[in-house]
Each structure stands twice: as structure tokens, then as C-alpha cells.
Write a structure and sequence with these properties.
Blueprint (H helix, E strand, L loop, with lengths): L3 H8 L3 H16 L5 E2 L11 H12 L15 H15 L8 E4 L1 H13 L5 E6 L4 H8 L3 E6 L9 H7 L4 E7 L11 H18 L4 E5 L22 E6 L12 E5 L7 H13 L7 H5 L1 H4 L6 H17 L12 E5 L5 H9 L3 E2 L1 E2 L8 E5 L4 H6 L1 H9 L3
Parallel strand pairs: 1-10, 3-4, 3-5, 5-6, 6-7
Antiparallel strand pairs: 2-8, 7-8, 9-12, 11-12
Bound molecules: pyridoxal-5'-phosphate.
């Protein structure tokens, strides 16, 4: 009964889930405090107080049709508030009409790809990548084209991007701060990418859209800046959510923002709103839209994640693993001591360590650790990492 495509996708789907299941098994066997599970990017920090207060207020209010359908793009005042925030942070004159409220960044990404892609058009992604991109692109008849990053910095390589762009390239997905590396793309990298995209557009007479996936935008450390994407690329669409910045992944609230700098955006906006409706999302959750105007300036405490980054980084590098110290998101992406990262992650399970092979992110020879977990799990994992490392000395 199940389609061939889904059957095949299921078989290559998610190392992350597979490792999480492994963690569940271990927890039942050994107890939660004895299992060092770094598999899932599920934030463990509670949403900021202001979010909880806004939610209580919204639930108790008697606004008529509070739980009813609305315009498919979302509440006008919420769209305007999101736009005002973007305008303030980027200096780009974003208005409410450039915003569509969505069901998380995942929903938003599907809406954008549905709206842009003709069958067989190519979407470039940089490896390592968020694995769901492959399926999202495939959902809408596109072809994923994978371009490697420089493995010493995990910054995209402008020359490799240039070489990968063809007359069929419709879009390029950029994800910074990045999952799985935690790396934030520098302004200078983005400027170089922009030059390459422009020169290819001229050469082929095409228009390429930058889709910037930014759910980790507020989780950055060490004074690093996330360059506002609209200041670099005119033909840019931002996909964003409050899953990580406000710790609300289960509530499915996010948005799409279109750069007014690309000129007439009306057909694109109509398309995005139409796709939101016809993919069956209809509109982003009403209740969680209502809390946004008051919560947009808030964020989870990135300092708490920074502390965990430092703790885990010290533990794994102390044990002898090689790892770049990233400045964003809540992941570390370290080198596997053997080429077969899948085998390495299986060996880690012997020490109750649950980590995810780089292969799942299109980058074999590495492993990912999500450190959005209790500090004690990190501290207590030291011995296990040391024993794991010792196997390869
Ligand atoms: N994009 C990236 C890079 C992610 O890491 C995630 C979630 O982990 C998503 C998108 C999906 O986020 P959301 O929960 O807002 O759909």
C-alpha cells in the first residue's frame, strides 16, 4: 500500500531518530542518568517567562473567534510585528505584507520549495546538511545538489558553489548558525557566495533564490554576529521559527520573510500563501501567533548553551577527539577517529554514549553531539568519552 518513494525514503531516513531509539533502549536498561544521549536537537531549556505569561493572558482573553480560521498568511498585527523586528535588526524595510506565518521552519521550508520549484529543478545544499532537506526538496519534485564545505572551517566554498550552479539551479539553501556543525557563516563568506551566484545568473540568464534557514539565529556565542541575509542577497527568502529561540518546537510556530529588495514580491507572496493553504497547513497556530508580539524581543538564555558547549568541548578534546569550536546553535561536530563513523557510533553505544554519525548529514568521518541536555549528563559523560577514545589509541 505504501508508495515506493516513501518506502525507499524510510529506509534511508534519520540516523538521529535511530540513535535516539538506541538511547531509549539504554535508558530502560541502565536508568536515565547512566545514559549520555546527545542525539536529539530538542531544547531542554524552558521557554522565557514572558512567553508563558503571554500564553496565560492569551488563553484567558475573550477575543471573539480566537480559535477560528484567519487569513492564511496569519494575523495582520503579528505579521506586522515580525516585520518590524526584522526591519529593526537588518535595516531592510520589511513590511507585514512580506511575512507569512508558518508551522515551524520545517513547514515554512516546504511551503517555499512548493512555491518555487518546477519538476527537476535543482536546489543546492551545503554538506554537512540538515538531513530533512533531502526529503523536503524531493517532496516538491526538486533535485538536491550537494556541495561540500571546507572541512577545516565548515564554511561554504564559493568556488565549489560556482562550479555546482547550472542553468537548472533554482535555489540555494543556507543554514547559519548551522545544524550539524554549529558554525556561523561569516559576512565575508556570504559576500563571496553572493558574487558567485550573481556571476552565474548573468552567465545563464537565470534567477536563483537564496533560502536562508535560520532557526538558530539567536543562539550564538563569543560576540559573533549573524549577518542579516537580506543585506547580502536581494533574491532571498528567510525561513525561521521559534522552536529553538523560544524553546517551542512542539508548538509549530514560525514564519517566512521575503526580501522587499527583490522588487515586486506580489506573485511570490500570493504563491506562498496559496501553498500554505493547499499543503494543508491552512495557517500557523492561532494561539502561538498571539504570544509573538510580546515575545519577539525575548530569547532563551544563549549563555546557558554556551556553558554546555564549553563543558562538552573540553571533555571531548581532552579525551583526544578533534573538533572545531563552533559559535552557534547547540551542536558539536567532531572527527571520528576511524573513517567509518557509523561503526564508531555503534562502538560508542558500548559506553552508553549516544552520538550521531556524520553520514546522516552527508559528511562521513564525523559525528554530531547535540548538547541541549542537562549539564550533569555532559559532566558525567567524561569517563565514557575517555574510554571510547582509548579504544582508538
Ligand atoms: N532547520 C534546521 C537547520 C533545523 O535544525 C531544524 C530542527 O531541528 C529545522 C529546520 C526545523 O525546525 P522547526 O522545528 O521550526 O520546524
Amino acid at each position: 500500500m505504501v508508495s515506493e518513494k516513501i518506502t525507499s525514503n524510510l529506509s534511508r531516513s534519520s540516523w538521529i531518530r535511530a540513535m535516539f531509539e538506541e538511547g531509549e533502549k539504554l535508558r530502560k536498561q541502565y536508568g536515565a542518568d547512566k545514559v549520555y544521549d546527545f542525539s536529539l536537537g530538542n531544547p531542554d531549556i524552558e521557554p522565557p517567562e514572558i512567553v508563558k505569561e503571554a500564553l496565560k493572558k492569551a488563553i484567558l482573553s475573550d477575543i471573539p473567534k480566537m480559535h477560528g480560521y484567519m487569513s492564511n498568511a496569519g494575523y495582520p498585527d503579528v505579521r506586522a510585528a515580525v516585520a518590524a523586528k526584522l526591519k529593526k535588526s537588518s535595516g531592510v524595510p520589511v513590511e507585514g505584507q512580506h511575512i507569512v506565518m508558518e508551522c515551524g521552519a520545517g513547514g515554512a521550508m516546504n511551503v517555499v520549495l512548493k512555491t518555487l520549484l518546477n519538476p527537476g529543478e535543482e536546489v543546492i545544499i551545503f554538506a554537512p546538511y540538515f538531513a530533512e532537506y533531502l526529503f523536503y526538496i524531493d517532496n516538491h519534485g526538486g533535485k538536491a545538489v550537494i556541495v561540500d564545505t571546507d572541512h577545516s572551517t565548515f564554511q561554504p566554498d564559493p568556488q565549489k558553489l560556482y562550479a555546482a550552479i547550472t542553468p537548472k539551479t533554482k535555489a540555494i539553501i543556507i543554514n547559519s548558525p548551522n545544524n550539524p556543525t554549529g558554525v556561523v557563516y561569516s559576512r565575508s563568506t556570504l559576500e563571496k557566495l553572493s558574487e558567485k551566484v550573481s556571476s552565474r545568473e548573468k552567465e545563464f540568464g537565470t534567477e536563483i533564490c537564496i533560502i536562508s534557514d535560520e532557526p538558530y539565529e539567536k543562539i550564538v556565542y563569543d560576540g559573533v554576529e549573524v549577518t542579516p541575509i537580506f543585506t547580502i542577497f536581494n533574491r532571498a527568502i528567510m525561513v525561521n521559527s521559534f522552536s529553538k529561540s523560544l524553546s517551542l518546537p512542539g508548538e509549530r510556530i514560525g514564519f517566512i520573510a521575503v526580501n522587499p529588495g527583490m522588487g515586486d514580491t506580489s506573485l511570490l507572496m500570493d504563491g506562498l500563501i496559496f501553498s500554505t493553504r493547499t499543503l494543508g497547513f491552512v495557517n500557523a497556530p492561532a494561539l502561538f501567533q498571539r504570544i509573538l508580539p510580546e515575545s519577539l524581543e525575548a530569547s532563551v538564555d544563549a549563555g546557558a548553551y554556551k556553558k554546555r558547549r564549553d563543558m562538552l568541548y573540553d571533555i571531548i578534546t581532552g579525551a583526544g577527539f578533534k573538533c572545531l569550536k563552533p559559535t552557534g546553535a547547540f551542536y558539536l561536530f567532531a572527527q571520528s577517529p576511524i573513517a567509518d563513523d557509523v561503526e564508531f557510533c555503534k562502538t560508542a553505544v558500548k559506553y552508553n554514549l549516544v552520538i550521531v554519525p556524520g553520514k546522516g548529514f552527508g559528511c562521513s568521518g564525523f559525528f554530531r553531539m547535540a548538547y541541549c541536555v542537562d549539564e550533569n549528563i555532559i559532566l558525567n559523560s567524561k569517563d565514557a568519552f575517555e574510554k571510547l577514545a582509548a579504544e582508538y589509541k
